[in-house]
Amino acid sequence: MDSRARRGIRGRAGVLLALAPLLAVAACEGVPWEAGHPVYDEKPSAQLAAAAKVTKEAGTARFTSSLVYGDGATRATDTTTGVMDFTRDTASGERALRIPDALPAKDARALGATGSGDDLDRDIDEARAVRTSSVYVPVRSGERTSWLRFSKGERKKFGLTHSDLARLNGAGAPYGGTLAETLRGAKPTVRPEKLKGGMRRYHVTVSRTRSLKVLPVALARTIRADGEKPKVTVTVDLNKKGELRRATADLTPLLAALHRADVLTDVSVLRADYRLTRLGKWQEERFPSGHSVQRSERVIVPRSSLKPGQCADTGLVPAKKKRVLKVDCADPHGVRAYAKVSVDETVTKVHGDDLLTVHKDDLIKDYGHAACVDRLAKAPKNVTEDVAEPATVSSVGKQSLQLTKAHGTVVHAKAGKALPHGTRLKVTGDFTCLVRTDQSRTTG
């Protein structure tokens, strides 16, 4: 060993001897030897992303997510409480929607009220559950409750890809539709305020696209169609561990777009709130399992498949898909099938006028619906006893219209031009007749 190497060893030994008393003091006073804080030692722009990771590492939490529309007599609230398991990517929640009578019917529907006309159910209580990419809806049958599973593929099949049901699949947390979704990608530009107990508070600005994730799909669609793109400020509180505890947002800037579309014009305030409690502690969760789960594609059927006397719930699938949840008529139901009708007739006059004087545009008539209305008047009392007043009849089927001359030659008429002399209209089709009932819904 040369002299230079010996001098290096003696130098390092001297440094260690100098540090020894300081290390000994730290050990005696119980000061831990640890790495930096997983959240607050990050640069400000990365702290909320780090907080999301730390929150998920807690494992479980209770949550409360709420929207408040307006104040005073027109104040409506939409609150969901439940539990989440970040490890298993599952969650369950119970929603309570309360809409005052003072809010106009069209606005009540935009917030989620159900029913037709002015006869709306403004107080809605429903449960939902989420596991990875599937959403579960409870269905009551007598004293028994089963759960319908809506996988990503099933939601696409039933036209629910962009629905309030689909938005419950969260990315920021297992249960979606909360302010946790708006915080994904949010980057603070300054260090947070320091609060009591080691808490930290951030104020971050999020885009319109992010802020819409907390609103019902109908409202979000209306705002998205507007040209202006206001940003929203979200206030975020973390605990001393860096876990998310609360987020609040004043969404009032989004109301301008709704007002321009004549929606919620009586509402001047819109706020959102999201809270997590009991992080990392045992939670009693209401989650479907085992025999209580059914695949939605097995029990949601085409309306045309209903037989006379069968009933269905209509609240789960968009009307344009013409599919319903078939249920027992002894349970709450939205529609009842009461007849199957076939139409096969030749029409030579419309509204009392000879077809020669009637344009093709005047021939657009739902002959199946007319036949169903006529059949309802002849239906037995046990079919009509729970029919909502005034009666709302719908027909499911496809009618075929063909214009011909007396000897059978097909007439190709153009809209806006009179039909040739002797023209006849041949109408054929098979239809299922349904009538709306005054029963409440089956799902909840």
TrEMBL record:
Q: Which UniProt keywords apply?
A: Signal
* Annotated signal peptide: 1-26
Q: Which PROSITE patterns match?
A: PROKAR_LIPOPROTEIN
What is the top-level taxon of the source organism?
Answer: Bacteria
Q: What is this protein called?
A: Lipoprotein
* Source species of the chain: Streptomyces tsukubensis
